[in-house]
């Protein structure tokens, strides 16, 4: 009896901890949107599932102050880039990324040389008071297109 309880306890303790998943819809209502546009409480090992529902978009990490367009492959350590996901014609591609850390990440769309980003197509993972969604969105709307990042 005690042996089986011990084995069951060890087996449960040996299971890897499963991270949380955050669902994000990309291009809802045919717009330049990530829904939700902010995720809080994400930790290393958590995943973000991006479901692309319209047009052709990316979810790519970028910088806070000069986000448009985000660089191919993503920005910084733990950066990610879903690549272009074509949701034209009813397809709904899904891309899952695993967060490498629990830091703040800024995400925007690379499409059209950064124009989608400038139209406010942005997402913040773990925003802070100083690096808020509102401030990031303002940077995106005011950012001149950086052709060296295309």
From TrEMBL:
<keyword id="KW-0732">Signal</keyword>
<feature type="signal peptide">
    <location>
        <begin position="1"/>
        <end position="19"/>
    </location>
</feature>
<dbReference type="InterPro" id="IPR008972">
    <property type="entry name" value="Cupredoxin"/>
</dbReference>
<protein>
    <recommendedName>
        <fullName>Cupredoxin</fullName>
    </recommendedName>
</protein>
<dbReference type="InterPro" id="IPR052953">
    <property type="entry name" value="Ser-rich/MCO-related"/>
</dbReference>
